Amino acid sequence: MRKPLSHVPAVLFLIAFAIFWEYGPGYFKIPDYILPPLSSIVRIYGDPSTLSVYWTNTLVTLHEAVLGLVIGSGLGFLVGVVLTESRVLMNMMYPYIIALQCMPKIAIAPLLLVWFGFGLTSKVVIVSLLCFFPVLVNTISGIRSVSADHYELFYAIRASRLKRLYHLVIPTALPSIFAGLEVAVVVSLLGAIVGEFVGAELGLGVLLLQAQFQMNIPGVFAILGILALLGVVFNITIRLLRRKSLFWIAGEK
Amino acid sequence: MKDMVLKDSALIDVRSVSKEYDTSDGPVLAVKPTSLRLMEGEFVSIVGPSGCGKTTLLKMMGGLIPITSGEIMLRETTVKGPSDDIGFVFQGSVLLPWKSSQENVLLPIRVARRTTKEDIQRARELLHLVGLENFEHRYPFELSGGMQQRVSICRALIQDPSCLLMDEPFGALDALTRENMNVFFNGLWRQTGKTVALVTHSIQEAVFLSNRVIVMSQRPGTVLDEIEIPFPAERTPDLIGTKEFGELTSRIRKYFSAAHLD
User: Fold this and answer.
1) Paired strand residues for B21
2) How do beta strands B223-228 and B212-216 pair?
3) CATH second-level architecture of B1-74+176-262?
4) Distance of alpha carbon B122 from alpha carbon B154, whole angstroms
């Protein structure tokens, strides 16, 4: 439980920060193209035509991120389950998974662009790739945390592999899988934006580059604001999902 | 309440069974060739020093681990793996925290087939029997340690096995809860008429609950002695204070102090 007044310091800080942003640039004579005052950024959100452009492009980025998140996390989960169920496959694949995980995967974005074009596909592939590994690694470590006692119980009640997966292994791994998902959610937006930087026709990443070329710095900040909001929404969604699914863990209530 | 009539037939017959483990230093003998019998309806406790292989022996009886030599019979069939006719109660309660008491009790059925109304009815009856009638829909984290272990006993009973094998089921409980559980479990045993083998560290618990106490030697374990406990089936806490009870426990304790010396 939060104490009743625990939000107050955070709100006070926000107000102070906003005031400083509004009057600081003028006071310190910082030019608009470096740091525009807050009001010039907020004003953009009031302009319907700009807003509708933002909206269209937000949907594009959102589409890429969510699709990639679902595909990448889904595959990470499936591969994690399959690998832990088969010792041979695990021994065969795990060293390469670790090696790939250590590689900065975003570096292959230019290559993916050549392979999959400027449209949705290349971004979804990049995002999937980024989301795949955190979920995979956390699924494996979650499954490895199943206790020997529980395995023995399932042996004693003569459960099939599939029943064991469903009733024991996956629920046990769930907290760890969610930890992976929390990382995946963050990198999904990152992947979508970087993918758009590398080459795209639509999306917030494209808008961001355009605003930068036009030295429209308030525009850049306005788009960053949308991205921050998306990030927060993603994070809250995952946390709600986590709280719903992990009701049995102390501290999740 | 029916009085215990011990039938003259063995439910589980352990015939010179041994267990060898492979370790990096070569094979280690955990259980020397050991023979013992569990009669129908009987309550037998197995006591012995830590690491003497009593849990190993129990798990072999339940078909949970393979035997190295010898043979274990469950009635007329050789034990080759787990069976529905044996319920196993583990050291911790080993419940699934995301399942309610009732779902935990029904787990052995859930993994075999779809649960029926009758199964659910039976699970409720069992929970009622162990005094958890208002806790069917509670989750393990809402239950005390003793309650959790009672749920796990219900889980072992859901398939209505002839035999319960229990590995230190009350070991993790505090002394007071443990004593209550012993009294409670004596009642449960009398009501269900199951054959029970209990592995325990507590000599008092063994004498309090059993018809017979089997004393095992240090590793590699084997049967040192079998002590008949001549008390009537119904046991009450007053029994612990009696002279006969004290004599029986000290007789068993002597084996451990002797084992300690060599």
Assistant:
1) B28
2) antiparallel
3) 3-Layer(aba) Sandwich (3.40)
4) 10
Nearest CA in chain A to B141: A248
d(CA B190, CA B175): 23
Residues forming a β-bridge with B87: B164
- Model confidence at A229, pLDDT cuts 50, 70, 90, reads very high
What chain B residue is nearest to A153 in terms of C-alpha separation? B94
pLDDT tens for residues A38-87? Answer: 888 888 888 888 889 999 999 999 999 999 999 999 999 999 999 999 98
- Whether residues B88 and A149 touch (CB distance < 8 A) is answered with no
pLDDT tens for residues A169-216?
999 999 999 999 999 999 999 999 999 999 888 999 999 999 999 988
Retrieve residue B119's tokens.
């199964």
**B60 → chain A, closest CA residue:** A156
Is the ipTM, as predicted for this complex, more than 0.90?
no
- Please judge whether A156 and B94 are an interchain contact, meaning their C-beta atoms are less than 8 angstroms apart: no
Residue B34: CA atoms inside 13 Å, Cβ hemisphere, count? 32
Question: Domain A46-245 adopts which CATH fold?
Answer: MetI-like fold (1.10.3720)
> Which of A156, A159, A163 lies at the smallest CB-CB distance from B88?
A156
Map out the domains of chain B as residue ranges.
Answer: 1-74+176-262, 86-160
In terms of C-beta density within 10 A (0-12 exposed, 13-18 middle, 19 or more buried), how is residue B138 classed? Answer: middle
Cα–Cα distance for residue pair B192/B195, rounded to 1 Å: 9
Distances (CA, A) of A164 to A81, A241, B108, B111, B246: 12, 23, 11, 8, 46
- Integer Cα distance of B105 and B127 in angstroms: 8
Exposure letters B191-225 (e unless 16+ CB within 10 A, then b)? ebebbbbbbbebbbbbbbbbbbbbbbbbbbbbbbe
Mutate which: A145, A151, A157, A162, vs B, most B CBs within 10 A? A157
Nearest to A138 by CA among A79, A178, A167: A178
> Are A22 and A14 contacting, i.e. CB atoms less than 8 angstroms apart?
no
Strands B43-47 and B212-216: parallel
Contact A248 B141 (CB under 8 A): yes
